[in-house]
Amino acid sequence: MAKEKNVYSCTECGGTSSKWLGKCPACGAWNTLIETVIASTLPNKNRFAALTKGAEITALGDIEATSMARTPTGLEELDRVLGGGMVEGGVVLIGGDPGIGKSTLLLQALDALQRSGQNTLYVTGEESGAQVALRARRLGLDNSQVKVLAEIQLEKILATLAAARPDIAVIDSIQTVYSEQLTSAPGSVAQVRECAAHLTRAAKASGVCIVLVGHVTKEGALAGPRVLEHMVDTVLYFEGDTHSSFRLVRAIKNRFGAVNEIGVFAMTERGLKGVSNPSAIFLSQHEEPVSGSCVMVTLEGTRPMLVEIQALVDSGGPSPRRLSVGLDKDRLAMLLAVLHRHAGVACMDQDVFVNAVGGVRISEPAADLAVMLAITSSLRGKPLPKGFIAFGEVGLAGEVRPAPRGQERLKEAAKLGFSSAVVPKANAPRKPIEGLTIHAVDRVEQALDVVRGLT
Ligand code: TYD
Ligand code: MG
Hints:
CATH architecture of the largest domain: 3-Layer(aba) Sandwich
Bound molecules: thymidine-5'-diphosphate, magnesium ion
Number of strands: 23
């Protein structure tokens, strides 16, 4: 087949150019031209064919709403984030830093699926078949019947998918796949986008469930996978500190289930193991209470989880530092200002470090109260009482605002043996919770007074 020359189109204005240029000739934007397959190389040459005959339209109410058949992967924590399992024809993108455990997780999932009678295919572009086999041995997956294809050319992968007709296929990773149609290098935005589009189309047409692996950090540091998010049905991020053994799988987008669910895993010598009681991980074990530590209950999806917030306040130099790990840095600066203005606690000349224990990332404002209490505890060198928790959002006026689903948070804390809690007034339970003394507050000063009374 004689190959026609591709064009470069601008992602900003849609203008085209026959060669790559740094600057779009039409709109003048920089670095926006990416290679695109021109329409005439596609099978349907008549661009107006689709217009000659209108397609049938149907009222929404007349369409039969068939519920999606889900195939559980056999890994409970993964199923939780997927919303119950893999969906026929569904496309899942799983992103994460290199080395975090994406290949390990998917190999384990495929093996479990294969053992439950599904037909699986693992397409590896990064490792050879032998390397994959070595990992499978290490994982204790002896005699695994998962089919492996070491291939990076899109056209061959598509042909294999059509011939082997698997139920579930994993492409590890989308950055290594390239299409013959484009001259750009594998991993470039043009290639990643084009290949993902073809694979998605194949999934929808044949009903195979496809999992795309993408190397990307949550900040989208690497170009490529970010452009895939709108194409796929589900986006999962694999996160965690490579220094700790705990890994979180988080759903960012899910057309077939709830988002913000998380699955918790521990990386062991023999692969990833689900952790069903994650609260235990995120609390560090102190024999006696230490200053600068406050436990909060955060909600991860539908699951309340206890996390320890640590703060260290120490005299700083001329420009004191504010550093946060696992919590929003801007929010920390704001909370310090609120502490000063409304509670008279000044940290202007102090370095302030805060950390969410266990490599967890907390984005909800319900952490505010715990962060402030940890900071004041560290500043005063006074530990908070034993068995103490706090949560609640703090506003700029110093008011303490309720956190969603307060009851569930409190019940989880009581279940794990916590005995006193400082919570926003609106979160105070109507019926007492056994074993838990509740101190309801509606201002920051009040929260600090309560704590002073307890210590
Ligand atoms: P991997 O799945 O290759 O990561 P990714 O595909 O996201 O790049 O995981 C690699 C890391 O996991 C590697 O540093 C070794 C570690 N590991 C274990 O600790 N135990 C195991 O059983 C396996 C297979 C890997
Ligand atoms: Mg890998």
